[in-house]
Every structure is written in C-alpha cells, then in structure tokens.
C-alpha cells in the first residue's frame, strides 16, 4: 500500500536530509492568503554546498535593476495556418553566457536565450501570430548533476536537452514544447504562436523531460508579453514606466557560481525542493531602481524552482493588482501583500507619487528583494487607474459537462522505494486518462493530500477558480470517503480572473472550471514546483476533437 511522506518519516526509511530538514509550518486556520500557504523557509539540501556564498552579506542596492533586452525579429516567414500570409520570424539561440549578478562578485556562468538572465522579452500583439526558431547552442555537459533515475532523464539520453514552452500560450500541440520533444546541441525547433488570446504576461522557459528544473535554474527563461487594443485603451503606465520583474532564487558559491543542491546519493541526486538564499530580481542581487513620483506598472513573474514569494512594500503602502496569469482583472484590486507561487504572474501598479525623496523596499517576508528610489526632484504626477479594466465573464458551474476529482499525493514507489509525487495516482508513463473534448467545459477538483501548496499549471487553457474547501485527508486515506470540512471558500478578489496556474492548498479541494478551447492534441498539466514536476508530478492530457456528425 502506498505510504504518505509522514508515514515514511515515522518508519524511518532512510530518507535524506532533503526530506527531513524542511522546517515547515502549516497554518492551522486560514485567515489570510499568506497564512494559507506553507512557509517555505528552512529547507536544506541533502548535503552541504561547497564554499557557499551567504548572499545577504553582500552590499545592498549597488547595482541598477536591469531591464531585459527585447527579442529581435529576423524577418518574415509564411504563416503555417495560412501560407498566403507572412508572420514575424525570430531566431533565438540558447548559449552559455557569463553574467554579473552583483558588483562585488565575479561573473556567473549561466545558460541564456540571449545575453543575460532573464532572456529577451517578446513584445507581441494579440491576433498577430509569430514564429520562433529555438536553437540549442549549449555545451554538451550540464552545469548541474543530472539524476538519471528521474523519468525521461535516463543514462540513455544526452544530459543536455532543451525544449522551450511558452507558459500560458494557446498554441497547437506541436509548438507547445511537449517535454519529450527535446532536442540537442546544433538542433532547433520551429514553433508557431498564433496569439489568439487576450493581452497578458506570459513567459517562456525550458521544459525538457526530467531536467527542466536544472535548465531553468541555469537561466533558460524570459518574458513573452501579449498586448491588445482593450489594454492599450486603458492608459496604463507604459514605456519606461512599465517593465517585467522576474524574481528567482539561487545558491551561489564564493566565486559567484551557481550551485544546485543534491541529496548526496550519487545515483539519485534529486532533492524535493530548492530554496536558494540568493534572491535575484531581473538577474541582480538587491538591485535598485530610480523611479519618478508617479505610477509604474510591473509584470511580476515568479521564475523560482520552488520558492513562493510573499510580496509587500517596506513602507506598508498598498498597491494595485490589475492582472493575473491570463490577463486583466475586471477591476484593480488594492492589496498590501501578494503571494506569488512558482509559475504565477501578477500585473501590479505601484503609485510612488506620495513618496518623493524616499526609498522603498520590495520584500518577501523578511527578505529584501530590491529598492525603489523615488526622485525628490521631479514633480509628483498623481495617477489614477480605470475603475474597470476588462470584463471577466464568470463561467457558470452548470456549463461544465464533466467533473474530475484528481488527487495530489505522495507515494513510495513499490519497486525502488523512492518517493514520488503523483497526479491522480498515475505515473507519467501511464496511458492518458484526462481526455476533455475540444470546446467543452470541465470542473477539475484538485484534492491535495500533501503538506505542500502545489501550484498546478495546465498547458493550452485558461481557467477560473471556483472555490477551495477543506476535506478530511485521513478519512479519505483509510475509508476512501470524501468528507468535506466547512463551507467552500470563495476566491480572493485577485484570484477572480483568468488563471493558468493555481495554488492548490494542502488539505483542501481546489476547484477550477476549465474551457478546453484552442486545439486538439496532447498537452501536459503539472505542479510548477519544478522538483515536484520532475518527480512524476506531471501528466499528459489530451484534448479530443469532437466527432463529426454524419
Ligand atoms: Cu508540487
């Protein structure tokens, strides 16, 4: 019988420190978004890192916040969906690069889609498709130890493999970056992004089977912004008053090189989560940004492998969230803090107009991420936001043709005795079990039996959160009966919008309603804690075209 992690720990089955030293706390009640999320502090890698750098000891606010370069178009090509038309063509090469993450450190070896980390930003328009040729020019040796016991990363495949996925893009399956469609050095993949979707903050990152956590950690990600007329008409801060903010954590050694922790087991170096102590914003440690006393728009992207951020400003001022993963909210939501899970995005407007001449920190709990220096010289520009942004039509539950209850659970593999995390009890290699019909609407109930908050991402689609509800995990485990506890809890105001990654809280059922629009074919859904996704917390699903009527 599969055992839970807690049972395993109780039976002392030789688990490494990666499992036992996580020092987590689970909130007993759920009064606020921050408290509802597992506190991700205290995890240690299985073996001590060599010559670790304690990043917090570095001088703060000595590097200006970098703004990622823009992706450059390399001409035009025939539109795959309509060869009579031409679409912009981009060629993006992945290379090993040296980047300076802090003034007082030597350069850091990383992998990039351009010259830095994050890679270049795609500026795209809704309805205007584009082609991207992703080219692998990486070395043949990986920066980090590859765990060959992980599914899809066996010793029979090359260590360095890549496949780019544009997170949140509605794309045909052959362009979605299916994890098994990886390619090696000297090869490339031409992908078509039709862009039939609303303005939002997407991002691209590596998705190669069994090593995506290592490839992203090396630096393979960047922003992919979709814009449209509705958004443009709102008069939101733009130009130099708008920028992506990628937040990601790493471990560095004293020479400034990236370190990825390992379990200490040579044949199985995988660790359950990585929480680095060096937190970077757009690729710098503790950067500063000179701002004018006015509104700014920041596209926040959590590009960490596992770390959640609990964002707030040091002067306790409020800010507005205007968009989530898949586009604008119906109205701005005033917040004092914001929880961002790996893979999630938040479109955020901060008004500095009342804070001339001050310095404001962007923080995550007690961690300092960056500093805003508000100019005292220029005259404040009072800003307002439109009262309404874009209508988000609520999908009625009655529109769903099917409800699937899907478990998120940890098991011990009966053969290897290794810990695996499974979606609905199924390994990656099992036959596809989720086959929604194209254009149908389904409710997915994510039953989280674990102690972790898992950010669950579905490719291809956008969806809405219906509610979350506690359930009795033990009763389900021992009697296979679903006993809910308390009433369903409605979404917070900033979760009432279009999402593609949802935080599935521990001990709760998270219910989402999903229109399967776009294209038939095979996609994946997975946890966006990348160490979990690598350890079987990823499954294919297949959108099935409706049968033709005779
Ligand atoms: Cu997870």
Compute the number of helices.
Answer: 7
What's the mean pLDDT score? 90
State the helicity in percent bands.
under 10%
Percentage of residues in DSSP E strands: 35-45%
Instruction: Please state the second-level CATH architecture of the domain at 397-543.
Output: Sandwich
Ligands in the structure?
copper (II) ion
CATH fold category name of the domain at 397-543? Immunoglobulin-like
Number of strands: 32
Q: Sheet bearing the most strands, described?
A: 8 strands, mixed
Query: Which CATH class of the domain at 397-543 applies here?
Result: Mainly Beta
The fourth-level CATH homologous superfamily of the domain at 397-543 is: Cupredoxins -  blue copper proteins
- Structural class per helix/strand content? mainly beta
Whole-angstrom Rg: 22 Å
Instruction: Indicate the overall shape.
Output: globular
Q: Can you tell me the residue ranges where pLDDT is under 50 for at least 5 consecutive residues?
A: 1-45
Describe what you observe in this structure.
This protein has 550 residues and is mostly beta strands. It has a domain at 397-543: Immunoglobulin-like (Sandwich). Helices cover 7% and strands 38% of the residues. The chain has seven helices and 32 strands. The chain has helices at residues 5-11, 17-20, 33-36, 212-218, 229-232, 473-479, 530-534; strands at 73-79, 82-99, 108-112, 122-125, 130-136, 164-167, 188-193, 200-206, 221-227, 242-252, 258-259, 278-281, 284-285, 288-291, 295-302, 309-313, 319-324, 327-335, 338-340, 345-351, 359-364, 367-374, 402-412, 419-423, 441-448, 454-458, 464-471, 484-489, 501-504, 508-515, 521-527, 538-543. Strands 10, 11, 12, 13, 15, 17, 18 and 20 form an eight-stranded mixed β-sheet that branches. A hairpin with a 5-residue loop joins β10 (242-252) and β11. The longest helix has 7 residues, at 5-11. Bound molecules: copper (II) ion. The site of copper (II) ion has 6 residues, from loops. Copper (II) ion binds next to loops.
């Amino acid at each position: 019988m599969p055992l839970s992690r807690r049972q395993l720990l109780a039976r002392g089955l030789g688990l490494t420190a990666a499992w036992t030293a996580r020092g987590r706390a689970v909130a007993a009640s759920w009064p606020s978004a921050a408290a509802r999320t597992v506190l991700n502090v205290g995890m240690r890698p299985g073996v001590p890192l060599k010559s670790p750098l304690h990043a917090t000891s570095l001088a703060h606010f000595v590097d200006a916040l970098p703004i990622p370069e823009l992706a450059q178009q390399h001409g035009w090509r025939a539109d795959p969906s309509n060869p009579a038309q031409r679409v912009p063509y981009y060629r993006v090469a992945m290379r090993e690069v040296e980047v300076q993450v802090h003034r007082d450190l030597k350069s850091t070896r990383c992998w990039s889609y351009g010259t830095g980390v994050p890679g270049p930003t795609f500026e795209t328009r809704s309805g205007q498709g584009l082609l991207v040729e992703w080219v692998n020019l990486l070395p043949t040796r990986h920066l980090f130890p590859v765990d060959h016991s992980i599914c899809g990363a066996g010793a029979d495949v090359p260590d360095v493999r890549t496949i780019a996925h544009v997170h949140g893009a509605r794309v045909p399956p052959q362009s979605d970056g299916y994890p098994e469609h990886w390619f090696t050095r000297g090869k490339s993949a031409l992908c078509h992004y039709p862009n039939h979707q609303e303005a939002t903050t997407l991002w691209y990152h590596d998705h190669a089977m069994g090593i995506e956590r290592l490839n992203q950690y090396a630096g393979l990600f960047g922003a992919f912004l979709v814009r449209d007329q509705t958004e443009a008409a709102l008069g939101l801060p733009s130009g130099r008053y708008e920028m992506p903010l990628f937040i990601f954590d790493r471990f560095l050694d004293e020479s400034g090189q990236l370190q990825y922790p390992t379990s200490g087991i040579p044949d199985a170096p995988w660790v359950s989560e990585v929480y680095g102590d060096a937190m970077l914003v757009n690729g710098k440690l503790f950067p500063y940004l000179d701002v004018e006393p006015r509104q700014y728009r920041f596209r926040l992207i959590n590009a960490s492998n596992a770390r959640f951020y609990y964002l707030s400003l040091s002067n306790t001022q409020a800010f507005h969230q205007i968009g989530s993963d898949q586009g604008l909210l119906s109205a701005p939501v005033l917040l004092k803090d914001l929880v961002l899970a790996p893979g999630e995005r938040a479109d955020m407007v901060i008004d500095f107009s009342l804070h001339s001449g001050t310095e404001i920190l962007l923080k995550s709990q007690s961690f300092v991420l960056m500093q805003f220096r508000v100019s005292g010289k220029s005259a404040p520009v009072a800003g307002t936001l439109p009262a309404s942004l874009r209508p988000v039509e609520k999908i009625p539950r009655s529109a769903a043709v099917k409800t699937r209850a899907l478990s998120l659970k940890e098991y011990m593999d009966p053969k290897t005795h290794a810990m695996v995390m499974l979606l609905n009890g199924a390994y990656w290699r099992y036959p596809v079990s989720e086959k929604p019909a194209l254009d149908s609407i389904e409710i997915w109930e994510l039953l989280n039996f674990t102690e972790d908050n898992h950010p669950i991402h579905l490719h291809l689609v956008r969806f809405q959160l219906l509610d979350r509800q506690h359930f009795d995990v033990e009763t389900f485990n021992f009697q296979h009966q679903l006993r809910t506890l308390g009433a369903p809890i409605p979404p917070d105001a900033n979760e009432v919008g279009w999402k593609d990654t949802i935080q599935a809280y521990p001990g709760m059922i998270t219910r989402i309603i999903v229109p399967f629009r776009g294209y038939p074919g095979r996609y994946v859904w997975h946890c966006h804690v990348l160490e979990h996704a690598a350890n079987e917390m990823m499954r294919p699903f297949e959108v099935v075209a409706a049968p033709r009527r005779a």
